[in-house]
Write a structure and sequence with these properties.
The protein has 7 helices and 6 strands; from the N terminus they run βαβββαβααβααα. It is an alpha/beta fold. The longest helix is centred in the last third of the chain and has 18 residues.
Amino acid sequence: MKVLVAYYSETGNTEKIAKAIHEEASKDHNSSIKKLKELEVSDLDNYDLIFLGSATHSSDLAKPVLNFIKEIPEKSNFKLAGFVTHAVYLPSENEEITASHNKWAGRTSQTFKSLQDEKGIDFIEFYSCMGAPSPPIEEFIQTSVIPTEEQYNQYMEIVRKHPNEEDIKNAQEFAKRVLNKIA
């Protein structure tokens, strides 16, 4: 099977996850990895499965990825799996954390899933993990999202450690699941 891992990354977080997915896909498949800017939409027709990754901006995929997927024609023959990195805690049993995730990163999975309805693309699965924020996002979080210095410092201590080894392992497991579903 021909697999493409395509991604858009500003800080290197999404690139780390893309490399982990590519490493897993390369074990048993003909896998390529490319930055989004290296691709034309017509290149996608050369693959059976595409893992498409993005940083999260304004609760959704980054604009370059949104613009790219708008150009994907209807009824494309490849299957799609999406992945993102973001600077918010993953949803949990804590309603406040889940609400924060939904507000700041919640549209990403829905955007990928909408490609199935809008363009007839077979969407397989979605993966997300925390990633250290860029300096402008750090500043935004400090001034607009987290109310106290103590909470901000605790948050930054956690988020700067991502993606970590567990995130990489989870990304590889995600790739393995997706590949098994379509093999």
